[in-house]
Design a protein that fits this description.
The complex is a heterodimer of chains A (about 220) and B (about 240). Chain A has helices at about 1-45, 50-65, 65-80, 90-115, 115-125, 130-160, 170-185, 185-215. Chain A is mainly α and about 220 residues long. Chain A has a single domain, classed as MetI-like (MetI-like fold, Orthogonal Bundle), CATH 1.10.3720.10. In chain B, α3 crosses α4 (about 110-125) and α5 (about 140-150) packs parallel to α6. In chain B, the strands form two sheets. Chain B has a six-stranded mixed β-sheet, sandwiched between helices. In chain B, strands 2-1-4-5 form a four-stranded antiparallel β-sheet, covered by helices on one side. Chain B is globular and about 55 Å long. The mean pLDDT of chain B is about 95. The interface of A and B includes residues 116, 127, 141, 218 and 220 of A.
């Protein structure tokens, strides 16, 4: 036990700075992925075939490529081809954004299409235009349905940040590996790393439950 | 003439739903459209406010060409619509449902809109339900709220698409009563319905549709007591004996 405490104390500063990188990476890539997802979702429900095709192709291609390959390709492949040196963090965030964006697009699309089309017709028949109907009637209902899936994707992406340790971003996983290379204590160090991820995700889960409850109108009554 | 539809043709893919339909409605007239399912009644109604596009012919409502107008939204403000499945917005209270469009479209200020909404809710017997979410209402209450929501926009025409077909039998009358009052106040109404007794009581004119055609039309009395067309006679015999 004393040994564990010692390892913990020694590795904590380095792991915390790794955790910081992980959190920043997750927040930035989820933010950008939400924007990409929203745009691709709008494309996929639009009437214009070209936009539809762009969105379908993007989702189809990205879902078929492992995130690790995407990261390696961007960092080493594209970097070499264009003769530029990517900051590993930038490459990692781009990879995560492209990856999660595809899944977010599908979550958004499914949520919007889950709303009965009669809602749109009723809103339009009152004289609201398409965007007002979307904003005031369809999206508020759709977002409520989407939240559990969005949270799932957020959690997946947070965990996926560890995959990007392969492009030498010093996030939590790589920080752990570096410590282990010095102290030969994989059991203790990986356990601490696992607990750190777990706490981060638990905090997010608690927040999402609160948001979900706040958006619920089903059980409110007179 | 407040509605003039001329030689409308409409198909869904290969299925032709409306074949050469012409139809006029006068101001203050109550028109009921009856006929077997699949005859194109609802589709015809939905063409009047462009919820469906037509392939041929023209629809002119309140002097505006529905298919060509640049501002369909403005026109729709004047055409209230009531749906079979109510389509109340579950994310708003009854009052919220009624205020959404007028406030969003800046037709009225909030005080004015609320005052009007309360008067309408009183008229449809729901003044105690203004702050309730639609999920807690019965079917009949939902449909009355939906009618109030449509009336809130001060429409010049009201379209009803089988407004009582999704209701339990004991709730049909409360909705029909609201509609009857509206008719007596002189509202122009086009009603797709299976309620033959209601059509007989309230309609100035009845149209019988079958297979995408208007097969017979006339005063409610003529249609219900002396239908000339065989298909119309068969249909009425079937639904009136049921």
């Amino acid at each position: 036990m004393d040994l564990f405490v010692k390892i913990f104390q020694e590795s904590l500063p380095s792991l915390l700075s790794g955790l910081r990188i992980t959190v920043i990476m997750a927040i930035l890539s989820l933010f950008f992925a939400s924007i990409v997802g929203l745009i691709m979702c709008i494309f996929s429900i639009s009437r214009f075939r070209v936009l539809k095709a762009i969105s379908t192709t993007y989702i189809y291609v990205i879902r078929g490529i492992p995130l690790m390959i995407l990261g390696l390709f961007l960092y080493f492949g594209v970097g070499a081809a264009l003769q530029i040196r990517f900051d590993p963090m930038v490459a990692a965030i781009i990879a995560l954004t492209i990856n999660a964006g595809a899944y977010m697009a599908e979550i958004f699309r499914a949520g919007i299409q889950a709303i009965d089309f009669g809602q749109m017709e009723a809103a339009r028949s009152l004289g609201l235009n398409y965007f007002k109907a979307m904003k005031r009637v369809i999206l508020p209902q759709a977002v409520k349905i989407m939240i559990p899936s969005i949270m799932n994707q957020f959690i997946t992406t947070i965990k996926d940040t560890s995959i990007l340790s392969v492009v030498s971003v010093r996030e939590l996983t790589l920080s752990g590996q570096i410590i282990i290379a010095n102290n030969y204590r994989p059991f203790e160090v990986y356990a601490i790393v696992a607990i750190m991820y777990f706490i981060f995700i638990t905090i997010l889960t608690i927040i999402s439950r609160k948001v979900e409850r706040k958006l619920s109108y089903d059980h409110r009554s007179e | 003439m407040i509605i003039e539809a001329n030689k409308i043709k409409k198909s869904f893919g290969k299925l032709q739903v409306l074949r050469d339909i012409s139809l006029n409605v006068d101001e203050g007239e109550v028109l009921c459209i009856i006929g077997p399912s699949g005859s194109g009644k609802s589709t015809l109604l939905r063409c009047l406010n462009r919820l469906e596009d037509i392939q041929d012919g023209s629809v002119v409502v309140l002097g505006e060409d529905v298919t060509r107008t640049q501002n369909i939204n403005k026109l729709r403000e004047n055409i209230g619509m009531v749906f079979q499945s109510f389509n109340l917005f579950p994310n708003y209270t009854v009052l919220g449902n009624m205020l959404l469009a007028p406030l969003e479209l800046k037709k009225m200020n909030r005080g004015e809109a609320e005052k009007k909404a309360m008067a309408l809710l009183k008229k449809v017997g729901l003044e105690d339900k203004r702050d309730v979410y639609p999920q807690t209402l019965s079917g009949g209450q939902k449909q009355r709220a939906a009618i109030a929501r449509a009336l809130q926009m001060n429409p010049k025409i009201m379209l009803f698409d089988e407004p009582t077909s999704a209701l339990d039998p004991e709730m049909v009358d409360e909705v029909l009563k609201v509609m009857k009052n509206l008719a007596q106040e002189g509202m122009t109404m086009v009603i797709v319905t299976h309620e033959m007794n209601f059509a007989r009581d309230v309609a100035d004119r009845v149209i019988f549709m079958d297979g995408g055609y208007i097969v017979e039309q006339g005063s409610a009395k003529d249609i219900f007591t002396a239908p000339k067309n065989d298909r119309c006679r068969d249909f009425l015999a079937k639904v009136l004996s049921a």
